[in-house]
Write a structure and sequence with these properties.
5-stranded parallel sheet, alpha/beta, Rossmann fold, 7-stranded mixed sheet, single chain, globular, 40% helix
Length: 325
């Protein structure tokens, strides 16, 4: 039962606040790990045993990455970072690219036909550019409408993200589940079919919130969430005292996991798709996946607003940012 409420763009190294270098980089810097000193165009001269050792270690790691499987994680905003983190935790030795279609953000406000065309166009360009071994569409909104077309037209394995209704139903003792997503995701036929298939014996309370996506985006830009506002968003879900499991059906929402738990009036099981997606990706990979974690590269489809994300991306392990033309 369901209850409704409501070619070469600009490339910079992620330097933890330091200015970008001009020109192509021979080596990218590893945030919180090591820094390569022989970037082309810096004019710096390095010498001595310490610098030689550093360059040798960087060269070894980059050779390892050349043989590692490449995983492209795609979203319209920063929500895909939650999925990227889950996959990196299980396969740290892979070559990771995070692609953000910020030029078309937010996807949740678009009609289905427009969204399918946009995702299809952008992902074809990204696949041609990066040639990934696996493509992860880390967006519930895009996955619920565009996956069939993508899998038909893109030869690479495509992994989508769908609301974690099945594991939530398996975990719920009271058979009352909350589904928190974007308005589009919670109302789409695909989601309703998931509820019918895997939670037919549960009451599923659906809440769609576009505002929560904005809060997550701003949180990554340094604005702390307002706990009282989060309480208001969560209130319709917790109105039923039997609710014991809550599905975060948008990849943005796990970025707010700590704040959401603080805002909740009582403890519940929080369920998202990140780890399930990571396990699925592992089954599609060949080659080494357990080497050192060398972070990831980030691609933006638009320049506007991307610079303010550099500190947060660096903190999460981004070593290079490119704004595509």
């Amino acid at each position: 039962m369901e209850t409704n409420t409501g070619n070469c763009g600009k490339t910079i190294g992620c330097d933890r606040g330091r200015s970008a270098r001009n020109g192509n980089q021979l080596q990218s810097e590893h945030i919180g790990n090591r820094q390569a000193d022989n970037a082309i165009g810096t004019g710096r001269q390095v010498s001595g045993r310490k610098s030689t050792s550093r360059h040798h270690a960087a060269a070894v790691e980059f050779r390892a990455m050349a043989h590692a499987p490449k995983i492209l994680v795609f979203d319209s905003g920063v929500g895909g970072l939650s999925v990227l983190a889950a996959v990196r935790a299980r396969a740290p030795g892979c070559d990771f690219v995070f692609a953000c279609d910020n030029a078309a953000f937010p996807y949740g406000a678009k009609g289905e036909a427009e969204l399918v065309e946009r995702v299809d166009k952008v992902l074809h360009q990204l696949v041609r550019r990066e040639q990934p071994d696996v493509l992860v569409v880390a967006c519930n909104t895009a996955s619920t409408v565009a996956l069939p077309r993508l899998r038909e037209r893109i030869p690479n394995p495509v992994v989508g993200v769908v609301p974690a209704i099945k594991p939530a139903a398996a975990r719920s003792a009271t058979r009352v589940i909350g589904l928190l997503g974007t308005p589009g995701t919670v109302s789409r036929p695909y989601t309703r079919q998931l509820i019918a298939d895997f939670a037919a014996d549960c009451e599923v309370i659906c809440v769609g919130s576009s505002r929560l996506v904005d809060i997550a985006e701003q949180a990554l830009r340094g604005t702390a969430p307002d706990i009282d506002e989060l309480r208001t968003i969560l209130a319709p879900l917790f109105a039923n005292p039997a609710l014991d499991t809550l599905v975060l059906a948008c990849t943005h929402f796990p970025l707010l996991a700590e704040a959401l738990a603080m805002a909740a009036p009582r403890p519940v099981h929080w369920v998202d798709s990140g780890d399930a997606i990571a396990r699925r990706v592992l089954t599609l990979l060949s080659g080494p996946t357990d080497g050192p974690d060398l972070g990831f590269r980030t691609l933006f489809t638009g320049a506007a607003g991307s610079d303010i994300l550099h500190p947060a991306l660096s903190a999460q392990g981004c070593r290079e940012i490119t704004v595509l033309p």
